[in-house]
Specification:
The complex is a heterodimer of chains A (72) and B (228). Chain A has 72 residues and is an alpha+beta fold. Chain A has one domain. Chain A is 47% helix and 24% strand. Chain A is built from 2 helices and 3 strands; from the N terminus they run ββαβα. In chain A, β1 and β2 form a beta hairpin. The two termini of chain A are 28 Å apart. Chain B has 228 residues and is an alpha/beta fold. Chain B has helices at residues 42-49, 71-75, 93-101, 109-119, 135-147, 165-180, 192-198, 215-220, and strands spanning 2-13, 16-27, 31-35, 57-62, 65-66, 78-81, 153-157, 184-189, 201-206, 208-213, 224-227. Chain B has a 6-stranded mixed β-sheet with strand order 6-7-8-3-9-10, sandwiched between helices. In chain B, strands 2-1-4-5 form a 4-stranded antiparallel β-sheet. In chain B, α3 (93-101) crosses α4. The longest helix of chain B has 16 residues, at 165-180. Chain B is globular. The chains are: A alpha+beta (72), B alpha/beta (228). Chain A binds chain B through residues 8, 15-22, 24, 28, 31-32, 35, 42-53, 55-56, 58-60, 62-63, and chain B through 35, 37, 192, 195-196, 202, 204, 206, 210-211, 215, 218-228. β2 (16-21) of chain A pairs antiparallel with β11 of chain B, so a sheet runs across the interface.
């Protein structure tokens, strides 16, 4: 799943899957298609809008990772 | 019209880079939220843009003035509120504002002081010493001080920090009113809700600029799907 170019992150939660997408609106159908083509079944799809806090924390984490990589 | 423009703005303190290569533009009348953790360079950026410290790299123009050349002229058209109110505790609210108004070419100081004491809800307490005020009242008086010369650009460095929820809410309402009045506001804050409520756009900084967009676009740039 994470190998798909428009998938930033994916987490399995039992029978559910939370997927973080680049350009969610455009890539949601692509995601469903990829799952179905891989033999999976999709019953429901819902959009999850991130809060500013989640966006902020992600930016900070990305910065920490890039800082660590730059110093290693 | 762009009123704040920075290009590669940087500040180094010996070996420590506080602000790195900041390039951004703020439109006139815009409220820009400046978010970042402690030590991210928010206050250093504000101090550079307000002409208090000089950048070690890059340049910036604020309200038409270069921050490294035209500081005195720039100070006539910018206002600033720091984390500490910076008032004279032994002077009354009215005398504080009259004193700070004296730094600017204001025709009718009494009328101007009255206008801002009233707009900050401090008129009834105008003869009381600032030192007797609550934190929230001091912050409102400090806002009046920052606005007394009716600046084009207002820098607010964590204006609700340390205030109780009611006082913080009052200060936010005042900022919101200033926004409606067309003042350009550069608002540094830790409070994401405050940034989302008050700001047209939000910049996220961690020494360098990580993102700059509307809150809606920032949220939309990384939304997700839940499938079952």
């Amino acid at each position: 799943m994470k190998e798909l170019p428009f998938v930033q992150d994916a987490k399995e939660e039992g029978s559910r899957l939370s997927v973080e997408l680049i350009d969610s609106e455009r890539n949601r159908p692509e995601l469903v298609r990829a799952i179905v083509e891989a033999g999976g079944k999709v019953i429901t799809v819902s959009e999850e809008q991130y809060t500013l806090e989640q966006v902020y924390l992600r930016l900070m984490n990305e910065e920490k990772v890039s800082d660590t990589q730059a110093h290693s | 019209m762009v009123i704040i423009e920075t290009s590669g703005l940087s500040r180094r303190f010996r070996d420590v880079i506080a602000v790195d290569d900041l390039t951004m533009a703020v439109e006139s009348g815009e409220v820009l939220g400046f978010l970042g953790p402690n030590g991210a360079g928010k206050t250093t950026t504000i101090r550079m843009l307000a002409g208090i410290i000089r950048p070690t790299g890059g340049e910036a123009i604020v309200a038409g003035y270069r921050i490294d050349r035209d500081v005195e002229k720039m100070h006539e058209v910018i206002g600033m509120l720091t984390e500490t109110p910076g008032l004279y505790g032994r002077l009354s609210a009215r005398r504080n504002l009259e004193y700070f108004a004296g730094f600017y070419p204001i025709d009718d100081v009494s009328a101007r002081v009255e206008k801002y004491l009233k707009s900050m809800g401090l008129w009834e307490r105008r003869e009381d010493r600032a030192g007797t005020f609550s934190k929230g009242m001091k912050q409102r008086l400090a806002l009046a001080r920052a606005l007394i010369h009716e600046p084009k650009v207002l820098f607010l460095d964590e204006p609700t920090s340390g205030l109780d929820p009611e006082a913080a809410s009052e200060v936010r309402q005042l900022i919101s009113r200033m926004r409606e009045g067309g003042c350009t506001i550069f608002l540094s804050t830790h409070n994401l809700g405050e940034a989302e409520m008050l700001c047209n756009r939000i910049a996220v900084i961690q020494t360098r600029l990580l993102a700059l967009d509307t809150a809606e676009s920032l949220r939309g740039a990384s939304s997700g799907a839940r499938l079952s």
